Amino acid sequence: MLLFGHVGITIGATRLFNREADLRNVALASIAADLIDKPIGLLYPDVFGNNTRLAAHTLIGCLTVCVAAWLLPKIIRHPRTLAFSYLFHMVLDRSWMERERVVFLWPFLGTAEPWSERAVARWWHFWRDPYAVAGELVGLAILFALARRYRLFERDRWREFLRRGVLYESGPAPKRPAAS
Fold first, then answer.
1. Rounded distance between C-alpha atoms, residue 88 and residue 164, angstroms
2. Is residue 146 part of a domain?
3. What percent of the chain is modeled with pLDDT above 90?
4. How far apart are CA 96 and CA 86, in angstroms?
5. What element of type H or E holds 25?
6. Domain for residue 95, yes or no?
7. What is the mean pLDDT of residues 123-147?
8. Per the CB 3.0–4.6 Å rule, which of 5, 43, 56, 128 could disulfide with 1?
9. Which domain holds residue 27?
């Protein structure tokens, strides 16, 4: 999956159990593994065998995020939600499948075989994978439905969402208290 699948589906899943979560953090955590691994894998393809799923896509990477969220509850608002959002990325990446499982359980199962094809070239094959395309469409639909329901197409409501990361049910967006 790419951006809309990870962000939209993770936000949708998060809203099922935590409606007060800061969705800005959920969105960031849902793609954090890719934000870390993809640039490194693309910059150093020969070092990593054209792989773009590296340390952040491993069990060790997931445990690091979970421990950090657990140890920093005063800094991280809703730490369990943040950990869930990061871990859900691995679910959406189908980490239980053969090649992905080797990456996820690194170094316990060894290392993934190098790809013969560059990562950028493989991304074009994305559009032939029904799971990936469906994930992108579902994620985009969830984001659009939330934007429509919570009227994020209105400038004030969008700005308030960007300030607080929370969706408000109805009426105008809550006003910030006046500075004294």
1. 23
2. yes
3. 51
4. 16
5. helix 23-43
6. yes
7. 90
8. 5
9. 3-164
The helix/strand/coil state of 109 is coil
Segment 50-69, tens digit of pLDDT: 888 889 999 999 999 999 98
Total domains in the fold of the chain? 1
User: Is the N-terminal amide bond of 45 cis, ω within 30° of 0?
Assistant: no
Rounded CA-CA distance 46/152 in Å is 43
Give the integer Cα–Cα distance in Å for 180 and 178. Answer: 6
Whose structure tokens read 């395309």? 133
In a domain, 78, yes or no: yes
For tokens 């020969």, the residue is 46
Residue 1's identity, in one-letter code, is M
How many other C-beta atoms are found inside a 10 Å radius of the C-beta of residue 32? Answer: 19
Q: What is the pLDDT of residue 74?
A: 76
Mean pLDDT over all residues of the chain?
A: 87
Specify the pTM: 0.85
